Amino acid sequence: MLMVFSFYQEGKMSFTVADAVDYKGFQADKSKTGGWIPAALILGIEICERLSTMGIAVNLVTYLIGTMHLPSSTSANVVTDFMGTSFLLCLLGGFLADSFLGRYRTIAIFSLIQTLGTGTLALATKLPQLRPAPCNGSAPHACKPANGFQMGILYLTLYIIALGTGGLKSSVSGFGTDQFDEKDEKEKSQMAYFFNRFFFFISIGTLMAVTVLVYIQDEVGRSWAYGICSVSMFIAILILLSGTKRYRYKKSLGSPIVQIFQVLVAAINKRNMELPYSVELLYEDTPETSRILHTDGFQFLDKAAIVGEGDFGRCLPNPWKLCSVTRVEEVKMMAGLLPIWATTIIFWTTYAQMMTFSVEQASTMERSIRGFQIPAGSLTVFFVGAILITLAVYDRLVMPFWKKLKGKPGFSSLQRMAIGLVLSIFGMATAAIAEVKRLAVARSTDANTGALPVTVFLLIPQFFLVGAGEAFIYTGQLDFFITQSPKGMKTMSTGLFLSTLSLGFFVSSLLVAVVKSVTGSSNGGHGWLADNIKHGRLDCFYGLLAVLGIINFVLFLVSAAWYKRRKPKPAIQMDTIVNGSSSEDKC
């Protein structure tokens, strides 16, 4: 009878997921929860998020210049600040999901916020009171820019959307992978397939944004386009909610950001204490199978593991006063990623130009094909196309060839990042050359001419090179930060990756402001970044980005070499020691 009961119990356990629960809080049953159907319901949110965010970002600069009558550099900074804030708020969304709300509630709440934002933006672009009067064609210099109230409403709507994007984006991919059990080989393979489909759906959403949505904005009306975004997101939320009973939910283990601050605070408070002569005397309470070996780097952080008076309360350590060696080593591992992290930011600064100045360039050039006018924002379709083509070539040709040649399945994460950085440098150099040609045509043409007699397809190489670079650096960064971070900080590592995108946009805004200030008196008083790019020297700005890219690439190589040489030093692992006695004896 006991054997039968044991067999029953083992059979029962094989149909449940140990680290997940259902919507009622019971252990998740594999036959009733998780798998591809719930994961597919989650992907709808990601399509609509990309549709909204990219549909707004890639064509916002033309609205700011043409409708709100803002200067070129100001318009570019509005776009980059909006995108930078969207990615920066991913850290907030991740913190709330890990500490309080859980991924499901986080997605639902912030999706509603984005729906509200896009709906408000549709209304703001519809009401004539919220935009300045159209320019007088005979006196374009008399255009009045948007006033403070009109810009305030626009900023409010954009940052509501940014809040929604950051909150939901931090949890969508994680909640999708929660639907698969890593300990089940079949479901583990399905999870890998989910990652491929996840990136595919991101690309589909972006393609729809830069083609269909941008066309609707230019030819039908922006309010219609943004209204479509709001309605589609609301439908996606209803689809998400319909799967509530089918999802698997994983319990929050606490925010890695809090854990990092705990180590820093404990180390700072014990900065005047001497490290013990042996690492065996440092505090460790992590099960031996999960421990991380002690390393010599960042020794200041080791002070967080020194046992001091008052560190314990009711036999348990105060995490703000005493941290285990493993917890300290996790923070060290994250700190070791920072040089690589810092040297990838400049790529996203280059990327930002594809949605700002490159789109503005396109708006001044000939875009007609047999009577059809290509929207300026739709030029980014070549950018997205480059990503898809590069990924396909790499997956089908490069990886098999590299495996035969080197015995490795493709380039390493650091190699992919290096390739992405190099391609971005060539992209900016190509953009500078194309801009020289465009400016030459602009100088020989009447200043009041609408479209310059130069084809917009001159810009394709810069879109293609930077797009191909993104395919390498995006996958390389994601792989590097996830695989090289400690197991308990995977969410944090994803946030670290997304923060490079955020800072890239903010650095772009800062660089534009500095260049405009420094070069304001040159080029006949127009500077490099003139209010009208027909009178500026955008080629010099692109050249500056190429030079900065070269300097950054050298720093990246140094950081990569340093990271490879850094190896952990084995330390003797013992049971938890507190001033020479076990924690049980202490109690």
Summarize the helices and strands and which ones pair or pack.
Blueprint: H1 2-13, E1 16-21, E2 27-29, H2 36-66, H3 72-126, H4 148-177, H5 185-219, H6 222-242, H7 256-269, E3 312-313, E4 316-317, H8 325-336, H9 338-342, H10 345-353, H11 357-363, E5 365-366, E6 368-369, E7 372-373, H12 381-406, H13 413-443, E8 452-455, H14 460-483, H15 490-518, H16 538-565, H17 583-586
Parallel strand pairs: 5-8
Antiparallel strand pairs: 1-2, 3-4, 6-7
Helix pairs in contact: 2-3, 2-4, 2-5, 2-6, 2-11, 3-4, 3-6, 3-15, 5-6, 5-12, 10-13, 10-15, 10-16, 12-14, 13-14, 13-16, 14-15
Mean pLDDT across every amino acid position: 82
- Integer count of domains: 3
Strand order of the largest sheet: 1-2
Overall, the morphology is globular
Structural class: mainly alpha
What is the H-and-E element order? HEEHHHHHHEEHHHHEEEHHEHHHH
Task: Give the end-to-end Cα distance, rounded to a whole number of Å.
Answer: 42 Å
Radius of gyration: 27 Å
Low-pLDDT windows of residues:
1-13, 566-587
Provide the CATH superfamily of the largest domain: MFS general substrate transporter like domains
Biggest sheet, in brief?
2 strands, antiparallel
Percent helix: 55-70%
Annotated CATH architecture of the largest domain:
Up-down Bundle
CATH topology category name of the largest domain: Growth Hormone, Chain: A
The CATH class assignment of the largest domain is Mainly Alpha
- Count of helical stretches: 17
Describe the protein.
The chain has three domains: 21-253, Up-down Bundle (Growth Hormone, Chain: A), CATH 1.20.1250; 256-335, no CATH class; 338-567, Growth Hormone, Chain: A (Up-down Bundle). The chain is mostly helical. 64% of the residues lie in helices and 4% in strands. A hairpin with a 5-residue loop joins strand 1 (16-21) and strand 2. The protein has helices at 2-13, 36-66, 72-126, 148-177, 185-219, 222-242, 256-269, 325-336, 338-342, 345-353, 357-363, 381-406, 413-443, 460-483, 490-518, 538-565, 583-586, and strands at 16-21, 27-29, 312-313, 316-317, 365-366, 368-369, 372-373, 452-455. It contains 17 helices and eight strands.
